[in-house]
Amino acid sequence: MQVHETAFIISTYRSYHEEISQDFYSKLWNNDATEALIPEILESVSQDEAVLHSLRNRFFYEQLSTFFKKNNGGTLINFGSGFSMYQFALDKNVTTIEIDKKDIITYKKEKVEYWTKLGKLPDRDIQYISIDFNTCSVEEVTNIIKPLVKKQPTFILLEGVLFFLNKETSLKLFRIFNTLQNKGDRIGSVSYLPEIENTEVYKRLLHYFDSNNDTNDSFNHQTIPNSFYGKIKEYTLKNHIDEFELAKIYAKEHSIISKDHILNENMYVLEKL
């Protein structure tokens, strides 16, 4: 399994629970190859994965919507955007900068433009950038992105990315964010707590990844303590919740017994000081 395949899987998860995810466009990415993979993933790892990813999407949709409504628009900068579709659910006064690896960006741009012409997607101001976070310097990334930010304020989204990066690259990303943002701008981030490494469900996840990994596609398995977010210079933590708690709000009909039985991701919202 390659990293870009997870983009198809996660978008399909969101389409299974539209009432939770509030993503009514993700089904455009659905395809037979991904549909064939999902039953084995749910069986091998966790039956709750589709619901959990829908909850994650719902949390950030609500955060983005509230932020941009309050500020009458702005710019969403989506690092590791995959096939997320937030921009089409947000108001038209929000500009989006999508950042990911070349194969994902090229494919997504082509499909989005095609679906927009067909009227399946509303027209939005979207700019696409192909960057490898691991190899580019802070200055290189900043110089590419900064001229593209035409509307203030900004909300940077880092969703489903940190798990695949090492600590050095993760710290570099937050230095990049600091150079791009102004006071009051926000960051949304997702990560696992280190405690999850002791759970059976997390061990099953790693086993699945390792068993289905292409020989040339390397994965980092990064978990991050809450304290990491409290130490980021020039930012303050505004919101923190995990998927277990989100389920009590948006997925009451889904019985989730405990945090230890799910791949419980934590969502954080930081504000620039």
From TrEMBL:
SUPFAM superfamilies: S-adenosyl-L-methionine-dependent methyltransferases. Transmembrane segments: none annotated. GO terms for molecular function: methyltransferase activity. Keywords: Methyltransferase, Transferase. One of its GO terms (biological process) is methylation. This is Class I SAM-dependent methyltransferase.
